[in-house]
Amino acid sequence: SYAYLEHHYRWDTDGSRAEWTEFVSPDDVRQTDIDVYTHEIQLQGSAFDNNLDFATGFYYEIQEPDGPEGQQIRAFYNDVSTDWEIEKETYGPYAQATYNLGHFFTGLTGWEITAGIRKSFDRVEGESVFLQSMFGIPSPPAFLDGKMKDSAVTWTLGLDYKGEHSLTYAKVSRGYKVGGFTITAANPAKSEYDSEFVFNYELGNKLDFNIGHIPVRLNTAAYYTDYTDMQRHGVDVYVDPNNPSIAPRIGAAVVNAGEASIAGLELEATIIP
C-alpha cells in the first residue's frame, strides 16, 4: 500500500484570544508531508482437523516525513522554525496460532491456547536545522542529526475456556515502541530517545444468562499494564553555553520519562427487558 499525507495546523497554546503563544506554519506552507509504503506477505490456514488455526507472515514499512515547523511567541517577538526530514524503516517476521486443547485430551474440551511472536527491526534517521530570533535578532542556527537502530521480540500468550454461554480468558503480552529522533529538540542531547516497552496482563470473563425470561450479558475484566522507558512529549528549553544569544532556544522533545503502571477493573452489563 501507499499513503500520502499533507499536514497543516495552527495551535493556540495559551488558550486566550491574545496571540501570545501561537504555533503557526511559516509563510502558510504545509507543516508536514509524509509518504508511507507498506508491504506484507501472509499465510493463513488450519491443521489437525481445524483444531489449529494459524497465521504467519512478513511485514515491511517505510515512512519519509519532512517539512518545516514554526512557532511564534508574539509576547516576546520570538520566532522559531525548523526545517527537517526523517526516514523510518521497520520490518519483521511474525507468527500466531490458536490450538484446541480438547484435540489433545478430551478432558480439556473447551480450552484453547493462543501464542504469537514477532521479531521487529527498526531504523530511524533524521536531520534538522533549528532557527530562532527574538526582537528580530537571530540566534546561531542549531544543526541536529541522528541515527539509530533497534530490534525487539514481542509476543502474546493467552488461555481461554469457552463454555456453553461463557468465555473465561487470561492473557499476557509484551509490546514495543521504537525510539527515534526529535527534530524540534532545542537541546541537542535530547534529539534522540530510546525505545519503550510494555507488559500487559488481563484476566476476564464474558457471560450470558437469564433472570427469569430476561436475557443478561455480563463482561468483567481486570488488567495491569507496566511500562519501561515510557516516551513522553514536552517543552524543551536550552541555553547553548558555546553560542550565547538574547533568548534561550525553545522547542519540544520526546524523552524517556521512566516507568509507569496502570491497573484497573472493567465491568459491563447489558439487560434486555
* DSSP summary, beta strand count: 15
Give helix and strand order, one letter per element, not per position. Answer: EEEEEEEEEEEEEEE
Radius of gyration, in Å, reads: 26 Å
Largest sheet: 13 strands, antiparallel
**Number of helical segments with 4 or more residues:** 0
Q: Would you tell me the structural class of the helices and strands?
A: mainly beta
Mean pLDDT: 87
Describe what this molecule looks like in 3D:
- The protein is mainly β.
- It has no helices and 15 strands.
- The strands form two sheets. Strands 1, 2, 3, 4, 5, 6, 7, 8, 9, 10, 13, 14 and 15 form a 13-stranded antiparallel β-sheet that branches. Strands 11-12 form a two-stranded antiparallel ribbon.
- The model has no long low-confidence stretch (mean pLDDT 87).
Can you give keywords for this protein?
two-stranded antiparallel ribbon, mainly beta, elongated, 15 strands, 73% strand, 273 residues
Topology readout:
Elements: E1 2-7, E2 11-12, E3 21-23, E4 32-47, E5 52-73, E6 78-100, E7 111-134, E8 137-138, E9 142-162, E10 166-177, E11 180-181, E12 192-193, E13 196-211, E14 214-238, E15 249-271
Antiparallel strand pairs: 1-4, 2-3, 3-5, 4-5, 5-6, 6-7, 7-8, 7-9, 9-10, 10-13, 11-12, 13-14, 14-15
Brief rundown of the structure:
The protein is an all-beta fold and 273 residues long.
